[in-house]
């Protein structure tokens, strides 16, 4: 903690230094012209440092111009680029700038005799209005990691032992892939993210207060995972091979292909991963009497090993029917298979520590996850100022989870008891949406649209008890659960930009209807429940630029979290002989208000104060059944209030060193009722640092890490501090077409998940240790040659996919 306090004081000192060294600076205007010397609209202009680090970027307006704040002292240049045109950079300029206007002329690729490539080394972290963008390839320590591990080390993100993702201290985050909700939560979302390789990912966007265009789901905000794409003309591709080791071997392989010529753009992506992993779990449960005196002890050790195979294929085509019309189609499929086995010993002890009895539990599991997705999209430009995009998606998930438990009493009077479980589930999703944008004038843009989605799930659970050699179907636990849900949404938003003020206000309306039916059997009757509700979700921001370097922004939104499909299902899942998990059909949605006030000093420093309050808060609940059985379930427990402070610093102390640091403080207060009134709170701090070092022109290194103090996401569970340190090297070879990377993750093997859970009349200390210490070596190669063709419409379609889980 002394080291942590020192780092915090250093962080505050740097902030103070920055504040005192601010000076008045001006705006510099970049004007871009095309080959006809006509101002060029919608050109990307980047401000880069002398070491090719992208500091800021913007788009030119109808007059071909874009404004930049003058950065702090140093050498810089500007780079302009557009699809079908060669990049053009300015000469090196020293700040403070003498010029107030810089003119750049860019030419079509076919008119340039010699190919010129201008690329900036992206910063690992970028801040733009409403988003934090993580550039995955910019970090050498990202090599070989899974997407879930990427999130664990992302600034402001925390992943707990159950795979629940929090953003800036707020749980229940909507996870999207390429701006489409995954429609998964719980164990199935964790399995997907823990199977995807970081080699598939280009960027991760973190949005704490998304606009009305996005689904209102996700009290914690949205995490959008953007996969890699190739946009160059001609036939191009890349291949990556990654090998790693912890206790066992791991391998990730990927192939990306793209052919773009004329009116056709065809693409394909293939990934195949093999992952051996382990989890060691220790739990020490104390049973308490009426006066909180210990009446019994359960000491449990569990070792879990898994072999995971991940296969992913995606292909599609974009057809540029005209300069104003683009039609796209894509199909993708995912297959995950995980073979697991575990050995556990549960030892009953007396209050004096003497062993009373012990039970050995051996389990085997086979988990299969299949996903197929089809997408049809259209983008239509209507005149110069209007755009219409339409998306239609069909998805199907199939999950099969087969488990077998065998319990053996270790004593002279031993017995063998077991359970066979088969839990197949399917999810079918149809979604259609349309978005319309009109630029009313140079200062105002209006957006509106609608979305309709239909989801149906079918879940079966078949339990068979085994007593010695006798098999008996357990009708009390066996279950068949069906669920149908329809969500219809409308939204509208207006964005205003004038001088130093930018503002946006949006309103989203969502109507939800669902029907659930638990089919009965000879031991229990049918049951069903339905619900219909509608809500308005306002959102918006107001931004004021006081001068060329300082911008203040206030953002607010109302959001919702609907209970995951599987958590509404009153299934019983066996964790071990003395612990079970159960759904709750009586959960209702939780609602939150989120407010943020932020200050940004150029791209150097961003500080934020936030506050959010959640009503009908989702929390894990821990109940007792019988004498020794404890139950994990979920429910609404009252409210949670969260006050957050964060600061993000990006600076380059020398030409060869780029530093990124972020600190987040959250004070979280929980009030709820579960048999008795619960009140709990926590002061939670998270610190992330990343250091990028340029050793040679073709060799770079990274040293990064994170630390989280004690934290709390649930009413009855406290998490203990954790963290890790990672390092990596990156070397470009084969004339820049190849890259070798080496990474070492969690070098000191510190990233355990540890905490304390309060049950009724019981308390449990737990510690989960995974194979977080990993070593990877990767090779990637880019091939193909761009064609030099005249400019044409770029086109493209994106938008949204969240909930289902176990």
Note down, in words, how this protein is organized.
By secondary structure, this protein is mostly beta strands. It is 5% helix and 65% strand. The protein is built from 4 helices and 47 strands. It has a 22-stranded antiparallel beta barrel. A 6-stranded mixed sheet has the order 9-10-15-16-13-14, with no helix packed on it. Strands 2, 3, 5, 6 and 7 form a 5-stranded antiparallel sheet that branches. The radius of gyration is 28 Å and the shape is globular. The model is unreliable at 6-25, 110-120 and 788-806 (pLDDT under 50).
Key attributes of the depicted protein:
single chain; 806 residues; mainly beta; 22-stranded antiparallel β-barrel; 4 helices
List the helices and strands and how they pair.
Layout: H1 2-20, E1 27-33, E2 44-49, E3 54-59, E4 65-69, E5 74-81, E6 88-89, E7 93-95, E8 101-105, E9 125-128, E10 131-135, H2 147-152, E11 157-159, E12 165-167, E13 174-177, E14 180-181, H3 186-195, E15 201-207, E16 222-227, E17 234-245, E18 249-261, E19 264-288, E20 294-320, E21 325-349, E22 355-382, E23 386-409, E24 416-439, E25 444-467, E26 470-473, E27 479-498, E28 501-519, E29 527-545, E30 550-561, H4 565-568, E31 572-576, E32 579-582, E33 590-601, E34 605-615, E35 618-625, E36 629-636, E37 638-654, E38 657-674, E39 676-696, E40 699-708, E41 711-714, E42 717-719, E43 722-733, E44 738-745, E45 753-759, E46 762-770, E47 774-784
Parallel strand pairs: 1-8, 13-16, 32-36
Antiparallel strand pairs: 1-4, 2-3, 2-5, 5-6, 5-7, 9-10, 10-15, 11-12, 13-14, 15-16, 17-18, 17-47, 18-19, 19-20, 19-46, 20-21, 21-22, 22-23, 23-24, 24-25, 25-26, 25-27, 27-28, 28-29, 29-30, 30-33, 31-32, 33-34, 34-37, 35-36, 37-38, 38-39, 39-40, 40-43, 41-42, 42-45, 43-44, 44-47, 45-46
């Amino acid at each position: 903690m002394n080291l942590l306090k020192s780092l915090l004081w250093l962080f505050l000192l740097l902030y103070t230094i920055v504040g005192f060294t601010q000076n008045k600076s001006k705006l510099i205007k970049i004007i871009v012209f095309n080959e006809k010397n006509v101002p060029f609209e919608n050109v990307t202009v980047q401000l880069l440092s002398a070491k090719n680090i992208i500091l800021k970027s913007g788009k030119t307006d109808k007059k071909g111009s874009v404004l930049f704040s003058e950065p702090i002292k140093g050498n810089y240049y500007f780079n302009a680029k557009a699809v079908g045109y060669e990049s053009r950079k300015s000469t090196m300029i020293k700040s403070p700038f003498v010029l107030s206007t810089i003119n750049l002329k860019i030419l079509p690729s076919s008119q340039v005799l010699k190919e010129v490539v201008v690329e900036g080394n992206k910063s690992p972290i970028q801040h733009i209005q409403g988003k934090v963008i993580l550039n995955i390839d910019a970090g050498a320590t990202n090599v070989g990691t899974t997407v879930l591990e990427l999130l664990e080390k992302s600034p402001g993100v925390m992943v707990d032992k159950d795979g629940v993702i929090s953003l800036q201290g707020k749980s229940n985050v909507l996870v999207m892939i390429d701006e489409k909700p995954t429609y998964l939560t719980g164990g199935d979302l964790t399995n997907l993210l823990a199977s995807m390789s970081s080699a598939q990912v280009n960027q991760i966007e973190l949005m704490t207060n998304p606009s009305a265009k996005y689904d209102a789901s996700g009290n914690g905000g949205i995490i959008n995972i953007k996969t890699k794409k190739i946009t160059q003309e001609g036939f191009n591709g890349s291949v990556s091979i990654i090998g790693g080791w912890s206790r066992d071997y791991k391998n990730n392989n990927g192939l990306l292909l793209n052919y773009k010529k004329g009116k056709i753009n065809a693409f394909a992506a293939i990934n195949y991963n093999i992952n051996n992993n382990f989890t060691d779990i220790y739990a020490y449960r104390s049973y308490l009497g009426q006066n909180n005196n210990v009446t019994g002890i359960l000491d449990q050790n569990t070792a879990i090993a898994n072999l995971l195979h991940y296969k992913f294929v995606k292909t599609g085509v974009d057809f540029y029917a005209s300069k104003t019309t683009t039609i796209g189609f894509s199909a993708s499929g995912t297959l995950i298979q995980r073979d697991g086995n575990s050995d556990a010993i549960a030892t009953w002890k007396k209050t004096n520590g003497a062993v009373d009895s012990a039970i050995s539990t051996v389990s085997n599991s086979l988990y299969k996850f299949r996903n197929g997705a089809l997408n049809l999209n259209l983008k239509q430009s209507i005149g110069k100022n209007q755009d219409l995009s339409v998306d239609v998606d069909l998805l199907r998930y199939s999950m099969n989870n087969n488990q077998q438990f065998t319990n053996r009493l270790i004593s002279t009077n031993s017995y063998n008891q077991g359970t066979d479980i088969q839990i197949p589930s399917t999810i079918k999703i149809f979604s259609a949406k349309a978005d319309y944008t009109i630029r009313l004038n140079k200062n105002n843009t209006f957006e509106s649209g609608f979305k309709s989605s239909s989801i149906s799930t079918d879940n079966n659970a078949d339990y068979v008890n085994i007593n010695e050699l006798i098999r008996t179907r357990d009708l009390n636990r066996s279950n068949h659960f069906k669920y149908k849900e329809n969500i219809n949404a409308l939204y509208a938003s207006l964005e205003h930009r004038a001088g130093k003020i930018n503002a946006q206000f949006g309103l989203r309306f969502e109507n939800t209807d669902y029907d659930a039916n638990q089919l009965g059997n000879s031991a229990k009757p049918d049951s069903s429940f339905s619900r219909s509700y509608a809500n308005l979700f306002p959102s918006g921001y107001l931004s004021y630029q006081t001068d060329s370097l300082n911008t203040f922004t206030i953002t607010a939104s109302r959001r919702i979290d609907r209970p995951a499909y599987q958590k509404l299902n009153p299934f019983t899942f066996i964790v071990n002989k003395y612990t079970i998990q159960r759904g709750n059909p009586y959960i209702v949605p939780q609602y939150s208000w989120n407010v943020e006030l932020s200050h940004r000093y150029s791209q150097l420093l961003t500080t934020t104060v936030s506050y959010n309050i959640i009503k009908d808060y989702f929390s894990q609940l821990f109940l007792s059944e019988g004498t020794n059985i404890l139950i994990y379930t979920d429910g609404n427990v009252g409210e949670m209030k969260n006050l957050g402070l964060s600061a993000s610093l990006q600076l380059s102390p020398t030409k060869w060193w780029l530093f990124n640091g972020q600190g987040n403080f959250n004070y979280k207060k929980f009030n709820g009722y579960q048999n008795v009134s619960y009140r709990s709170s926590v002061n939670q701090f998270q610190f992330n640092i990343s250091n990028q070092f340029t050793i040679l022109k073709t060799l770079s290194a990274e040293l990064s890490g994170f630390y989280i103090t004690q934290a709390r996401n649930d009413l009855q569970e406290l998490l203990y501090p954790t963290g890790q340190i990672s390092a990596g090297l990156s070397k470009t070879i084969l004339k820049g077409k190849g890259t070798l990377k080496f990474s070492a993750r969690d070098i000191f093997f510190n990233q355990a998940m540890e905490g304390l859970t309060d049950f009724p009349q019981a308390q449990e200390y737990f510690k989960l240790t995974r194979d977080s210490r990993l070593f990877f070596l990767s090779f990637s190669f880019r091939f193909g040659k761009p064609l030099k063709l005249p400019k044409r419409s770029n086109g493209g379609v994106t938008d949204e996919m969240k909930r289902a889980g176990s």
